[in-house]
Specification:
This protein has one domain. Helix 3 packs across helix 4. It is elongated and about 105 Å long. It contains four helices and no strands. The chain is mostly helical.
Length: 108
Protein backbone atom coordinates (compact mmCIF):
# COMPACT_ATOMS: atom_id res chain seq x y z
CA UNK A 1 0.00 0.00 0.00
CA UNK A 2 2.85 2.36 0.80
CA UNK A 3 4.41 1.77 -2.58
CA UNK A 4 1.24 2.88 -4.36
CA UNK A 5 1.15 6.07 -2.32
CA UNK A 6 4.77 6.84 -3.15
CA UNK A 7 4.12 6.33 -6.87
CA UNK A 8 0.92 8.37 -6.72
CA UNK A 9 2.66 11.19 -4.85
CA UNK A 10 5.50 11.20 -7.38
CA UNK A 11 3.03 11.61 -10.24
CA UNK A 12 1.38 14.51 -8.44
CA UNK A 13 4.64 16.08 -7.31
CA UNK A 14 6.38 19.09 -8.82
CA UNK A 15 9.39 17.01 -9.74
CA UNK A 16 7.37 14.92 -12.15
CA UNK A 17 5.77 18.03 -13.63
CA UNK A 18 9.18 19.65 -14.10
CA UNK A 19 10.49 16.48 -15.71
CA UNK A 20 7.59 16.47 -18.19
CA UNK A 21 8.11 20.17 -18.95
CA UNK A 22 11.83 19.60 -19.48
CA UNK A 23 11.10 16.68 -21.80
CA UNK A 24 8.65 18.77 -23.86
CA UNK A 25 11.15 21.66 -23.98
CA UNK A 26 13.87 19.34 -25.31
CA UNK A 27 11.46 17.98 -27.95
CA UNK A 28 10.60 21.51 -29.08
CA UNK A 29 14.27 22.51 -29.29
CA UNK A 30 15.03 19.38 -31.29
CA UNK A 31 12.08 20.06 -33.61
CA UNK A 32 13.35 23.56 -34.43
CA UNK A 33 17.14 23.33 -34.13
CA UNK A 34 18.03 19.66 -34.59
CA UNK A 35 19.78 18.13 -37.60
CA UNK A 36 16.43 17.67 -39.34
CA UNK A 37 14.71 20.61 -37.67
CA UNK A 38 12.72 23.40 -39.23
CA UNK A 39 15.68 25.81 -39.29
CA UNK A 40 17.86 23.29 -41.14
CA UNK A 41 15.08 22.54 -43.63
CA UNK A 42 14.63 26.25 -44.42
CA UNK A 43 18.39 26.71 -44.89
CA UNK A 44 18.50 23.70 -47.20
CA UNK A 45 15.57 24.98 -49.26
CA UNK A 46 17.29 28.36 -49.67
CA UNK A 47 20.48 26.62 -50.75
CA UNK A 48 18.55 24.49 -53.28
CA UNK A 49 16.92 27.63 -54.70
CA UNK A 50 20.28 29.39 -55.03
CA UNK A 51 21.88 26.38 -56.71
CA UNK A 52 18.93 26.05 -59.10
CA UNK A 53 19.38 29.69 -60.15
CA UNK A 54 23.11 29.08 -60.64
CA UNK A 55 22.38 26.03 -62.78
CA UNK A 56 19.96 28.03 -64.93
CA UNK A 57 22.54 30.80 -65.42
CA UNK A 58 25.24 28.29 -66.30
CA UNK A 59 22.96 26.60 -68.85
CA UNK A 60 22.35 29.96 -70.56
CA UNK A 61 26.09 30.69 -70.57
CA UNK A 62 26.79 27.20 -71.96
CA UNK A 63 24.31 27.77 -74.80
CA UNK A 64 25.99 31.10 -75.66
CA UNK A 65 29.42 29.47 -75.69
CA UNK A 66 28.21 26.55 -77.81
CA UNK A 67 26.74 29.03 -80.32
CA UNK A 68 30.00 30.97 -80.36
CA UNK A 69 32.00 27.76 -80.93
CA UNK A 70 29.68 26.76 -83.80
CA UNK A 71 30.02 30.24 -85.36
CA UNK A 72 33.83 30.10 -85.06
CA UNK A 73 33.94 26.64 -86.63
CA UNK A 74 31.61 27.51 -89.50
CA UNK A 75 32.50 31.12 -90.35
CA UNK A 76 36.14 32.07 -91.06
CA UNK A 77 35.27 35.77 -90.81
CA UNK A 78 33.94 35.27 -87.30
CA UNK A 79 37.18 33.50 -86.38
CA UNK A 80 39.21 36.36 -87.83
CA UNK A 81 37.10 38.92 -85.97
CA UNK A 82 37.54 37.08 -82.68
CA UNK A 83 41.31 36.80 -83.21
CA UNK A 84 41.54 40.51 -83.97
CA UNK A 85 39.60 41.40 -80.82
CA UNK A 86 41.46 39.10 -78.44
CA UNK A 87 44.99 39.24 -79.86
CA UNK A 88 45.01 42.78 -81.25
CA UNK A 89 45.82 41.50 -84.72
CA UNK A 90 45.67 43.83 -87.71
CA UNK A 91 46.24 43.75 -91.45
CA UNK A 92 48.99 45.69 -93.28
CA UNK A 93 48.37 49.43 -93.45
CA UNK A 94 45.60 49.09 -90.90
CA UNK A 95 45.43 51.19 -87.75
CA UNK A 96 43.85 50.15 -84.50
CA UNK A 97 42.10 52.79 -82.48
CA UNK A 98 41.69 52.10 -78.78
CA UNK A 99 39.03 54.03 -76.93
CA UNK A 100 39.73 54.33 -73.22
CA UNK A 101 36.88 55.23 -70.95
CA UNK A 102 37.68 57.95 -68.48
CA UNK A 103 37.28 56.82 -64.88
CA UNK A 104 35.27 58.98 -62.53
CA UNK A 105 36.65 59.88 -59.11
CA UNK A 106 34.51 57.24 -57.32
CA UNK A 107 35.56 54.36 -59.65
CA UNK A 108 39.20 54.27 -58.62
Amino acid sequence: MKKNRIEFNFVKSRGFLMLIILFIFILILTFFFGDSGIVEIIKTQDKIETLTKNITGLKVEKEKLEKEIKDLEDDPLALEKKAREKLWLMKKNEKVIVIVKQLEKGDR
